[in-house]
Amino acid sequence: MTTGQSLAEVYxxxxxxxxxxxxxxxxxxxxxxxxxxxxxxxxxxxxxxxxLQFWEDDLKQESTPxxxxxxxxxxxxQTQHPKYMGHQTAVPAPISALTGMxxxxxxxxxxxxxxxxxxxxxxxxxxxxxxxKVGYNSSASGIMTSGGSLANLTALLAARKDKAxxxxxxxxxxxxxxxxxxxxxxxxxxxxxxxxxxxxxxxIKIPVDHNFKIRTxxxxxxxxxxxxxxxxVFCVIGCAGSTATGSYDDLDVLAEFCEAYNLWLxxxxxxxxxxxxxxxxxxxxxxVEKADSVAIDFHKMLMTPVLSTALMFKEGNKIYRTFAQxxxxxxxxxxxxxxxxxxxxxxxxSKPFLSAQVYLILKTHGMDIFEKNVxxxxxxxxxxxxxxxxxxxxxxxxxxxxxxxNFRFVPNKKMNINELNALNTDIRKxxxxxxxxxxxxxxxxxQRTLRCTVMNPLTSEADFVELLNEIEKEATSIxxxxxxxx
Length: 486
Ligand SMILES: *Cc1c(COP(=O)(O)O)cnc(C)c1O
Description:
- The chain is of the alpha/beta class.
- The chain has 17 helices and eleven strands.
- It is globular, with a radius of gyration of 24 Å.
């Protein structure tokens, strides 16, 4: 470990310049290799304990910052690799790496205008742009926050403030509150509801249909049952789309139901809300403009690094009431609505300069770049699902509505569910260990599925063909070994 630099050296501009110039070359070469060089691994596949040991040892050794950063690069999951088709993490536009350098250096903490003048103004520009794409009118407004989980929690707090019969924020709980949500919702909704103090009974999970969409026909009876059980339902959460399969709930019908019963409609569009930027796919969220709030992650399909989320409100003033509180040292008048003091409307006090990433991507690559990305990813997923359907030994679990594709390898119909689950688990393990592809898995109706999320717009048809071939090869070798063993 290098020791003994003075604080003056830490902040020395020339040292920074020298490392920075070299680093850009390292990063550009790395990116180029991942995109074009044969044989670059997607995932290094080290065991957690080995990885820990490596870094404990590394800390004791001499190396330059460039050497350490290069090691870090190579020991990471390579989301920039076209054969990365794993979790729903964006393949960041490289301009965002450069933007991140600048926002890290200025380190404006955004909460109040004076600690982020550009940050607060850009946040307004970005959220106004996004609100317009949602279909909201000028009474809407939004915030940027650190992730979909926090955005969903914030939305539920706003919903409770607006629709609960008493003021929990000030008085605490004196009534049992509840929300209605699809059983396919992201786990953070369940967690948010528990943080709000709703408990098991306050999270009412509605079954889904064969397309994994919330059964809207069941809503009235679940609402009646909740009332009979002494619960006060204040909010319905729609999935756009759901986590496992990327299925979109019928937001039009949900909005109609919420209107009829005076409930808040929140749309969890963390992943699939990005289609509001696409003419081709925006009908998947038809009715979203009637929702009271909607969360969209930029760090999923909209090309920014983690975390960057927009939470939009149809009636922008409602978010100010959510966190109404005195903080004398931050602002003079807690009651007034000032868009430029971000912390009045977010859970966070200090908050990264999130809007710069979105702003720079739009400004550098064009206002239609998100649309191009969403269209490319969704079209690609359809292509992959067609390739899967064409192969008799593969079983497509559902037609993809988004860029999420679930499928299984089913070499013969006589294998029972346990054998198939074990086989598909093994296939993925070997595939990931090979480092040639990165895909994930999930369980749908007790069936272990292979799950690809097409995140990289550079992933090609040839990559998909190679993936399916490699799955067949791994399966043959697993089954061959089993037969030899018997
Ligand atoms: C990713 C995701 C979340 C959680 O968002 P984070 O940004 O990871 O906190 C919530 N809901 C859905 C549907 C998601 O895809």
